[in-house]
Amino acid sequence: MERSLVITALLALLTWSCAARAAQLGVLAPVQQGAEAASKPGPGGALRPILRPASNGPLYRALMAESRRGTVAFVLKLDEQAQRLSGQALQPTWLLLTEEEGGFAQRGFWLRQSGHDRYIDQPYVALLTDAASVTDGSFEEVFSHETGHVLLRRLLPNLPAGMSRVRHGSLTVTDDPTALDEGFAIHFQALSRLLTANPALRAHDAGLGDKAFTPLWQSNVDGTFRIDGVRRNWFIHRQLLPPGNDDAPGRRANSSAFDVAALKNGDQMMASEGVVATLFYRALARRPSVDRYVSLFRALQRLSRQELKPDSPLLPLLVQSWIVTDPSRGNEFLRLFIEITYGATIETALPHSTVALAQAGRVGNQEVFVEQLKPAREQLAALTERTARQPGLLTAALGPAIWLASSAPLIVNLNTAEADELAALDHSFACCAEKIVAERDAHGPFQSLDDLVQRTGLAVPLPKMLSDLAAAAIALGTYPRL
After folding, report:
1. Under a CB-based contact definition with an 8 Å cutoff, are residues 72 and 144 in contact?
2. What pLDDT score was predicted for residue 154?
3. Other CB atoms within 10 Å distance of the CB of residue 163
4. pLDDT grade, residue 103 (50/70/90)?
5. Helices (DSSP H) in 305-365: which residue ranges?
6. DSSP-derived pairing of the beta strands 25-30 and 47-53
7. CB 72 within 8 A of CB 143
8. What is the pTM (predicted TM-score) of this model?
9. From CA 292, how far away is CA 280, in angstroms rounded?
């Protein structure tokens, strides 16, 4: 009897100690210094906030309840695994209750306890949080998104900054690093609709509960596409420029009008956080499990050991890494990658066949659609099998990032910009922007400015202007967003 009691006690102690070491939600609040939030220099000299544990009150209790269910509980388990894989001692997943609008992930803060400050060199999520956001489910959705950034920084610490200055969003085309960073985070928002137990979020997902007019606001349009657009693979399609007489780049960046009979090119897809989110969502959400995510995490860690640059093709490199670390799931991801993008990063033949099929389908031309459907499927299957044997083909149709910057500054990649964006760089390009994009669509990305000039026959002084714009982009450098 005594022996069994000892064993029971030991098992209980072991269970408790494992739970105590598991990652959990650590809620923080700013320390106030007068009317301002207190801060002081961190180890590198930059000012870091001084924060205190928030461990009581109705909001704290509501957050603790959230941490034990739905998407929040799931991403906390993922962060536990990410910390273990990175070889660090387990810490809470830190949440700073902020009064600033929106949410974002940062790193490094002073933790004040019992009058003493201890520097915590860890990422944390700063998020405007109140009882209403917990009740309506927006906390669950946004916290999971921002924790996605935390996970990525634990596993891919050398993620480079990108070049694009466009204010990112699900509808925008930016650059590969921004798209990977934001796309990975966005896929958790769509995942939250599968894992949530929140009745308000479930009702919203069913198309119920929106108030008149509010869905028309830009951020709400973007939010809708982060769910429905990801689910339906809308982001692979090119967007139409909304009507207007000014700020073409701004209208382009927020365009929610997709042309279902036109595909983005491979470079545009890899710079679209919506496309990236779709890829992660379809790879991970069908059977969401910690084990499946850990498999991806190992691939991210392998990718992090490579020398990554602002123009590295990050997503194809991740596919190749996943094939090495987990061949079964990596090859599954490769096949999804090709199916979702219609091979746009590999060749132009299948995308052109897909566009022809879509043009017939859009107008309901059944005879032509049925006639072209079987050959298109055969093309897709053949391309998938060929690429499975040679994963290096994933980047065969991608071009280099050739950045051009005006004095605004407006900065665009020659291989992802649409004609209206090129024309906005300088009015001198208005006459040839359509020609440049048509040539790129027909024969693939430009390999250099000289390649562009040769293929399009640009007349003097446009080649010199292009060189000057390219030099201006190099001078601007990368654009760290966090």
Report:
1. yes
2. 95
3. 24
4. low
5. 314-325, 327-341, 349-362
6. antiparallel
7. yes
8. 0.93
9. 11
